[in-house]
Amino acid sequence: MTARHCLQSLWKVGTAGTAQREAYGEAMIQRFTECRTEKNWSLIRYDILQSMRMVYDITGHKDIHTTAHELIDSETDDKYRKKYSKLWKMSRTRLSQQPSGPRHG
Questions:
Q1: Based on the structure, what is the number of domains in the chain?
Q2: How far is 6 from 46, CA to CA, in rounded Å?
Q3: Which of 17, 19, 11 is nearest to 102 (CA)?
Q4: Residue 70, CB half-sphere, CA atoms under 13 Å: how many?
Q5: Which of 7, 15, 59, 79 is 20 to 30 A from 26, comparing alpha carbons?
Q6: Which domain does 31 fall in, by range?
Q7: What is the pTM of this model?
């Protein structure tokens, strides 16, 4: 299993509970910021944001949404900022229509 595969599976941790979601969020922020000097940094960042999108879609927690947009806004390269934004484009409109709590039946 590659590091990217691990990253792509971490969304499951973010949906396990409040403590796990908070730890997950902090780890994603740290990984997003420190990966810039690594090979394939843009793919790593994309995976992080995609993982965060999955957590948001499942839990509906606004803190994940806000953090993801802050990370996207921190990207200095317009090309990648646009690419990352596409993952979240639909959620910007949906956010005002969604409750802030979990979406469990």
A1: 1
A2: 14
A3: 17
A4: 13
A5: 79
A6: 3-90
A7: 0.81
